Fold:
Amino acid sequence: MTFGSWVCLVAPLAGFLAITLAGTRITRSQAGWISTGSVFVGFAGAVVAFLDAWGRDAEQRVELTTAWTWLKAGEFQVGLELLIDPLSLVMMLVVTGVGGLIILYSNGYMAGDDEERRYFAYMSFFVFSMLLLVQGGNLLLLLVGWGLVGLASYLLIGFHHERPSAVAAAKKAFVINAIGDAIMALGFFLAIAHVGSLDFGAVFGAAESGELSDTVVTLLALGLLGGAVAKSAQIPFHTWLPDAMEGPTPVSALIHAATMVTAGVYLICRTHLVFEAAPDVQHIAAILGLATLLAAGVIALVQWDIKRVIAYSTMSQIGYMFVGAGVGAYGFAMFHLVTHAFFKALLFLAAGIVIHHLQGEQDMRRMGGLRTSMPFTHLTFLVGTLALVGIPPLAGFWSKDAILSSALDQGGALGWILFVGGLLGALLTGMYSLRLYFAVFHGAEYAGRHEGVEAPHVEEHGEGPRSMTVPVGVLAAGSAVAGLLQIPGVWHPFENWLEHTVEPLVHASVGEEWLTSALAVSLGVLGSLLAWRAFTAGRELVPEGAIRRTLEHKLWFDEIYDAAFARPAQAAAVGLRDRFETPVVQGGLDEVAEGTLRGASATSAVQSGLLRTYALAITISVAVLALIFLVVR
Amino acid sequence: MQADEGRLSAVGNVLVWAVWIVAAGACLGTGLRVVTASNPFSSALSLIGNLASLAVLYLLASGEFVAAAQVLVYAGAVMVMFLFVIAYLGGRADAPWAGGTRLIQTASVITAVSLLSVTFVALMLNAGGRLSDEADVTRAFGSPAEMGGLFLTDHLLAFEITSIVLLVAAVGGVVLGMRSEAEALADGDQGLQQTVARPSEDAA
Amino acid sequence: MSGPGVPWYLAISAILFSIGVAGVLLRRSPLIVLLSLEIMLNSANLAFVGFSRLFGEMDGQVFALAVMAVAASEVCVGLGLIVAMARRNLALDVDLFTELRG
Structure:
């Protein structure tokens, strides 16, 4: 297990270093293959580790391997250690597997771009950072991985750096992530102060045993939640995700759908003992998840950009995962994470094929009728959409309903609110997903496209190179069957796999599960029908008016943040600059410099060049010195 | 004149005093003349007089060798050099008093006077008492033999370095005096090449 | 010692020194400046000889001799400079040589 895990971690890093150091000595496509290969090697390592772990008993599936002691400050020390247990193995497989497929896809998608090498270097770097995050054996390494994925996200969102909108989006993502990181770091400081260590065992043990006071545990949990919320783009730190679509489509698929944004869910599952010791915070997590789920769902109803719709969908689905983690159904939250990785990545990549085919067009209103010209993409996209909505037997059905039934099992006011909200979300999911599907693939060919801009004929070019279609196909297959890992009442390999590591708090009965499924599916189908009705009637699901305007402005979050934080900060900065920096600091420095110059020119006037003056000065000095010696002896 | 070392008869003492006063007076007088004369020739001649009177003072202080060296080297060689240069410069050496700002002039005078006073005060205050007991000296004091002995034993380094300094000065003097070929031709003299070439022409 | 004691010699030396200093600072012709320098050096020599007589050690006179040698070398170079200046038809005036100005 250890060997496989180390290979898994190091291979993408090696790929990144190889591409970076080779520079222009390798061709662009070679860089792509190096990156793809390195991540697939990592996947092989993860598989090896997984098989090894599978062969063991449940209790023995945990391994903590230390490379060396990294940091030592008095009593506090941190080692470079990896924790391999079923939870991290799940993440490792997802990250390297889906990541590998996406990077393979990128070979085709990014072909021809001038800076491909940089792209593939960043992608390998991202995979490595994500693996470090999930394999980290203590909170500090997790934080390191956390920060590095934030960096990778920034680099990749702003990949097309000549576009000001991309640069701004990258900055926005980074800043909001940094806010979350800071909150998390504060929590960690608290942990160091009260527990003296950042090792998982020490912190979780202290939280569980009641050693720490309630306040401390709550604050620690809030710190963790803050970080998770920012990274996973939940309300209130969600505004960066839609803008992050400025990055290339594979980036959106990998980072902002399958892996990085799910890191928050992983974090909550990993640190669930802390949350369980502060149940209020856990409930807050669930509520935030619910709020995001609904908000993103309604906003997605009015978006026109393909990628934005899918981005809001991601936000919404992660809301589901937070709900699951919030009620203690960690296994199901992770299950939804896995299935979501499949179908969301699929949706992004298929959308990427469409965008690529239409030479960069992303506006839904300018697409249409692609069903006939792009059959393969159409089929896979449909599979992804239906999986997202939760239609059996596709993956989303099994995972989403598991979460909802857990919420039902939770009971109490919170449980009921979550349950109903979640069902509502299923309705919304149906509506926006099918709206997207119909707009892109049905209706008149290229409805509303500009005159004179022709798309290339499929017969000449095919729907895309093999490197793009194969991953999409694999992901489609995964979206179809991955859900079958967990059939309530029949077999639960996934649940069993994670049970020992993250004991769930709730156990839905079979009856509850089937009831939930029935409700969820019906609502999903209802939503799809509503979307179909609207499409055929040629009108929008949300009519014009105040509501639509609010949704178009994404519930005014950006405007509120701008007014509450950005403008005051800017005003303060400008004010400080004008009132303090320029006159006092700069002026002070200028004064010093000028003073020095003035002093220098005054002093240099002494050097008149007249020899006699110099001689006089020397003689006077001698006389003065003699006088001094006389007095002082 | 001396009955034995260190003790003179009254007449001898008076004589010594007289000689001393004359020499000192000449020394100071010529010194002033050097600094104040406008004609450089007068200045140089006054300096010769100064050197000579100093030599007398050295004699009275039992520095016979130094006195002799003073006359030979200083008055004999250095001043001759000076006179040569003054003669070469001719009219260009004239040195009138004009020039220098009031400030510098007054400052210089004040400085000189204050230096003098400080020296006096320093000497008198610090060392007044101790300056009166001169050591007893033998007749050999100040003789060339003693001098040579010291030069070759205690002060060998000073001796050697002095010789190097003299060498450097000689080289420096030659370098400063050299003229380039262009300058020489401009002056109307033949260049070195021509001068060297001439004997062969003569021979032919 | 018969005749005036050492303090008298030192007094003469001091007065001569200040005369020399005044000469160096007040005169404009480099030639006269050099001559004044000689006076200063000689005054130092006189002090050396005086102290040598006071302590009965000949080291003072040895040093006076060394000073003489050095003075001779310095005069040689100084006069060389003056001749070089004259050869280039520069006016012999120390106030005109201001290339050391800052």
